[in-house]
Amino acid sequence: KSGVFPFQSSCDKEVILNILSVLTDLLSLGTGRRIHYVISKGGSEALLQALAAAARTEPPEPPDHSILLPLLRLLARVGQRDRKFGLKVQKAEATDVILSLARRSLGHHLHLTHCLWVLRVCASNVTTGTTLGINGAMELLFKVITPYSKRHVRTVRAAIEALAALLKSKSNSRRAVNRGYLGGLLRLYQDWHHNDASNNYIYIRRGLLLCLKHITNVQLGRETFLGSRGMEILFTSIQDCLSCKNLDPIITTVIQILRKCYPKESLPVATVRSSYFFPLPGNAKSEPPCEGSEEECQVEHLCLYLFSTSVGDSESDGEEEAEKDLDNEDVESKEEDYDLETDVNKLRSRPMPDRPEEELGQYEALCPELSHNFQELESESEEEKSSEDRVESLPSTLHFIPSAASMKQPNCRWRNQSITGKGPDLGEKDFKVPLQSWTRKEECRWYQTDEKRDVAGAAQDADSCQEEDPAGSHGFALRPLPKDAAWYKKMFYPQCEASKNPNPGGRLESSDTVTSLLEKHQGDLPFHSPHFYIARAKCVKSVPDFKDVAFPDFWGHQPPPYSKPMLERKYGVQRDKVLDDIRRLIQPGDVIGRTVFDLDEPSHSNPGAPGCLTFFSKFESGNLRKAIQVREFEYDLIMNADVNSNQHHQWFYFEVRGMKLAVPYRFNVINCEKFNSQFNYGMQLVMYSVKEALQGRPRWLRAGHDICYYKNHYRCSAAAGGGARGKFYYTLTFSMKFPHKDDVCYLAYHYPYTYSTMMSHLDILQQNRNPKKVYWRQQTLCQTLGGNRCPLLTITAMPESKKRDDLEQFCNRPYVFLMARVHPGESNASWVMKGTLEFLVSSDPIADLLRKCFIFKIVPMLNPDGVINGNHRCSLSGDDLNRQWLTPNSQLHPTIYHAKGLLYYLRSIGRAPLVFCDYHGHSQKKNVFLYGCSIKETLWQAGCMVDTTVITEDVGYRTLPKILDKVAPAFVMNSCSFLVEKSRESTARVVVWKEMGVLRSYTMESTYCSCSHGLYKVSKSFK
Questions:
Q1: Which of 229, 351, 818, 956 is 20 to 30 A distant from 533 in Cα terms?
Q2: Following DSSP, what letter does each residue of 827-882 receive, concatenated?
Q3: How far apart, in whole angstroms, are the C-alpha atoms of residue 446 and residue 766?
Q4: Which element (helix H / strand E) includes 937?
Q5: Burial label, 603 (beta-carbon count in 10 A; 0-12, 13-18, 19+)
Q6: How far apart are CA 595 and CA 584, in angstroms?
Q7: Do the Cβ atoms of 128 and 170 come closer than 8 Å?
Q8: Among the CATH numbers 3.40.50.800, 2.60.40.3120, 3.40.50.300, 3.30.460.80, which is that of 573-748?
Q9: d(Cα 114, Cα 160) in Å, to the nearest integer?
Q10: Could you give the C-alpha distances from 854 to 187, 605, 793, 794, 919, in angstroms and in order?
């Protein structure tokens, strides 16, 4: 303070110079704390006042540069740390002073350089920069910036950096475009780039690029840039820079400009709405998707243009990802701090039930364990027990609560079987699929006699399904096998080859072929039977009425006998992919643009073209809407939106055939929606080869190289997307070499787990459990909107005897309620649930103890319709079911409505679950972790005062996560959160915690891609 104020008031030159010298010494040493201290004591204002005083001379008389130069150096240094420096310059009316000094110093480059440093700092404030632009600062700077020269380089650099700072103001950018400066900047950049062969002036070249980058933040700038052939100029200029790592700053900036200026386009589809439409009961707003008429397309393109114009000026900062990955945090987690529920009354309230109490009585039938008489305990043999275990034979095993849709539509026999009706059932067959022991790994084999019996049983099941519901059952067929005749002869007996006669539609209808395949199946896949799968698949109801079965789901798979490391991302791979995309615009002659698969217009597809891959996705859980051949070995892929929706593009699962051997094919999924993905952090997609499977290696393998995920130039207008603002799309790009020529391969986002897979898995588990120890009841919670049944399982230990104490202990066991797959694209949730079920019915001592302590109520798939139809997040209603728990609609959200009803019933009889857990998958985080609910933690995180005498809370909600953190290698306690957000108030976790009073109500998130901690750490490997 004593050093600054005398400086303001002193008129003695020696005093001023001494003070400036002291300040220079003080501020040139140490950290920024000294500069911030000077700023806090009014140093910026004092220096600006001194500058105005020192520059106040009559025109003939030059200012005293012995004072001005150190003063300008100090201002430049202090101004860089002072966030309000621009405003202080305006308040001190120093903008004109600085510009005047610069103009008077045009003939003296040392003095001019110091003025330009201060000018750059002033322009960092947009308002001050705008004022400088109005007062002619840009014209001054363009006089200083010269073509390539080795003279006065420091001055040229300072002028370019000051101009870049000025152009952050959009009004300055528009002014620069209107005055023709953009073309001048392009010519200057070309000149410096061409002549700077030794790369000595990278900072000047990058400064010119920053000027172009800021100008193109405005729509007028982008249009002028395109009209000046800026795309071609910059694209060509960096081709000889890619091999030099020192030029990365230039390459990165060029790519940012090119991506920003790439003309925005709508997706090459008639409409962004799903190709599939499902009429909703009693819902007038549901309309079929538009047909994409010429007029509608024009309207959508107009909306897209208006959208790009309105948001383009503010999207520049979103293009900073050329070589930097976005933060590996979900948007949802970032919302926590400002989305927390801080109303204590809302957090502590217990809402009234959303339905009359008398309606809850119907759910009594879903709790047979509370009223079972256990007559079979008196005399029990395996033969007698097998009849008791049939899915349809007891009232307690088939009761379901019909929805409005189920009353109108017939259904498959597993859903509509009469309570007392008899009929062939999977449980009646002699065929057994052996379980894999948890204590020792057993080799599972199916014998030919059992195979024949099961084939006959599966056929009988299909006949029964057709008799009850001719419209709902299907003439299912396998997709055609690889067409290599020599390979086929090698794999099958010669007499089987004659049965391989594809019909004109390309589907294998011959039952002999299926029989041949089943005979070849080794039967050594734990918990899988192709016979059971076909029987279940025939009764599945889908919106597009699928007629084909994907080979991996029919044949099954096993894990590879080896571990695979995470994919290491090569340096520059995303940059190269983006440049390839830009090359399409600059060199359109290289683009083929042939549609080879189109779900909307099959007649427009051109499958089987010479040298072209063939795509297909019309099977259970399949999702591929369109495939466009871009170059000989490159394809753009478009995913289908969720049924009755125009969004939620993430899940994909499709078939590809006709590939060449050892050729790298590139695939670009161009309509992803999430802003980041684990594909940027080592994750690979999965691939299944039919040839490999038939050679005894049926495996889903992690595959693909050169994988990256980035924002592209496709946009969806607000009008087309149904939102307040349009949305951006992202590209998932990967390259792949297929293991065989003319193979049939399946590619998927993650390991698929279909509805038919789950149903057949339940059949196998039921059949192979130990009925003397495991109490198992499979019931139907309800019928889905699409006419498929939603299974409900009850698993616990059989009572030790019929003694009263044993039966009371059986009935009084606390409940644990588990459910999974409310989001269809989160197939990893189903695999975790599969492991849970296999463990619970196993002979493991811990599993036996759990069964004796708890009754497990399990809904293994809460959104069957979404899974069947290849959705990512929604049901057939187009709604995210995990946002419907507050007020579920019995017609539109039957599975949520009745799952909540069952929980209400358990609470009404004093048996609310001890633990509730909803299994999910997380696409942007690693490890396994839980979300729970806590009043205190929510208030603490929100910064609210918590009166512990008023607000008391049982911390038991932390017990289970802490246990898992100790015993489960993939679980990470630090990733868990117990905050209650407003935007999550309608999720299962929060509703069950608040309305049912379940303290331990969780959402369990499982990663799609490995772990960052513990035994399965990323640096090791993942499968």
A1: 818
A2: HHHHHHHHHHHHHHTS--HHHHHHHHH-EEEEES-S-HHHHHTT-SS--TTSS-GG
A3: 17
A4: helix 935-941
A5: exposed
A6: 16
A7: no
A8: 2.60.40.3120
A9: 14
A10: 77, 55, 13, 10, 19
The 3-state DSSP class for residue 954 equals: coil
Which ranges constitute the DSSP H helices of 352-468?
382-388, 395-398, 404-408, 413-416, 448-468
Identify whether the C-beta of residue 978 lies closer than 8 Å to the C-beta of residue 958. yes
Angle of helix 202-215 relative to helix 170-178, nearest 10 degrees, comes to 100
- For residue 987, with 0-12 CB atoms within 10 Å meaning exposed, 13-18 middle and 19 or more buried, which class applies? buried
How many CB atoms sit inside 10 A of residue 446's CB? Answer: 20
Q: What is the 3-state secondary structure (H, E, C) of 626-663?
A: EEEEEECCEEEEECCCCCCCCCCCCCCEEEEECCCCCC
How many residues appear in the chain? 1023
As beta bridge partners, residue 918 has 819, 1003
Output the CA–CA distances (angstroms, integers) from residue 280 to 228, 277, 539, 878, in the order listed: 52, 9, 21, 10
Tell me the Cα Rg of the chain: 35
- The total of other beta-carbon atoms located within 10 Å of residue 38's CB is 24
3-class state of residue 791 by DSSP: strand
Distance of CA 710 to the CA centre of its chain: 12
Q: Where in the chain is the domain with CATH 1.25.10.10?
A: 5-261
Q: What is the pTM of this model?
A: 0.83
Q: Are 252 and 323 in contact (CB under 8 A)?
A: yes
- CA 137 vs CA 104, 343, 544, 935, 975: distances in Å: 13, 53, 64, 57, 51
Task: For the chain, give every residue range classified as CATH 2.60.40.3120.
Answer: 573-748
The Cβ-side half-sphere exposure at 144, using a 13 Å CA radius, reads 31
CATH 1.25.10.10 assigned to 5-261: yes
Retrieve residue 701's tokens: 């393998």
Question: 436: burial class by Cβ within 10 Å (0-12, 13-18, 19+)?
Answer: middle
Residue with tokens 């400086």, as numbered in its chain: 7
Q: What is the DSSP letter of 564?
A: B
Query: Terminus-to-terminus CA distance in the chain, angstroms?
Result: 65
What gap in Å lies between CA 933 and CA 990, rounded to an integer?
7
pLDDT tens for residues 959-997?
999 999 999 999 999 999 999 998 899 999 999 999 999
In the numeric block, the tokens 């753009």 are attached to 636
3-state secondary structure of 39: helix
The angle that helices 126-134 and 153-166 make with each other, rounded to 10 degrees, is: 110
Tell me which residue has tokens 């998130």: 1005
The rounded mean pLDDT for the chain is 81
Residues that are catalytic: 1005
Helices (H) and strands (E) in the chain, counts: 43, 20
> pLDDT of 560-590, one tens digit each?
988 888 898 888 899 999 999 999 999 999 9
CB atoms within 10 A of CB 361: 10
* Coil, helix or strand at residue 708: strand
- pLDDT band with cut points at 50, 70 and 90 for residue 623: very high
Query: CA-CA distance, 777 to 369, in Å (whole number)?
Result: 9
